[in-house]
Amino acid sequence: MIEGINAILQKNDLGCVRAASVHVTRSELKTAHDVLTAVKEFAPSEGWLCFTDEVLVIRKGTLLPSLDGRVILSGELASGTQSIHIRQSGACWEHYLLHRQEGGEQVMVEESFITIPKGEKSKLKYEIYWQADAQGVLAPFASRFVGFEQGGLN
């Protein structure tokens, strides 16, 4: 299936897809302290965190600053083949751990999106996973933040 998809994409000068699977684990975090602990334990190499007053961008090669006393509203952090996505939901937070594995039945596409603020010279990079339904039709299943892509805004 992958070969057939890639043959069509190449004829149209589009990027290739590859076989990869993502395993998603959802948990609920009860307190802002639990969220901070999860972020510190994950030890991200890059990502972003949204607070009430700012969006903190964590670039590859920089240390995670002190987050003590801060309340994270949402964020996406990456480290190798794993990412965490955090979203405040009512009185708690939804915490998703996403782990990529090569091969499998899903199809993975890499995509990049313009960052905010618009003057930034990088893009947010995601892996989008598609899987077949019971009739064999591919549909988006999950997306995983993987970091930032440097370069101009196209």
Note down, in words, how this protein is organized.
This protein has 154 residues and is mainly β. It has one domain. The protein has helices at 2-11, 32-42, and strands spanning 18-29, 46-50, 55-58, 74-79, 82-89, 92-114, 122-132, 138-150. Strands 1, 2, 3, 4, 5, 6, 7 and 8 form an eight-stranded antiparallel beta sheet that branches. Strand 7 and strand 8 form a beta hairpin. The radius of gyration is 17 Å and the shape is globular. The chain starts with a helix and ends with a strand. The mean pLDDT is 86.
Quick structural summary:
By secondary structure, this protein is mainly β.
Structural class: mainly beta
Strand content: over 45%
Q: Over all CA atoms, what is the radius of gyration?
A: 17 Å
The 3D shape can be described as: globular
Largest sheet: 8 strands, antiparallel
Report the total helices.
2
Q: List the helices and strands in order.
A: HEHEEEEEEE
| Number of separate strands | 8
The pLDDT mean sits at 86
User: How many separate domains?
Assistant: 1
**What is the rounded distance between the termini?**
30 Å
Helix content: 10-25%
- Poorly predicted regions are none
Name some characteristics of this structure.
154 residues, mainly beta, eight-stranded antiparallel beta sheet, globular
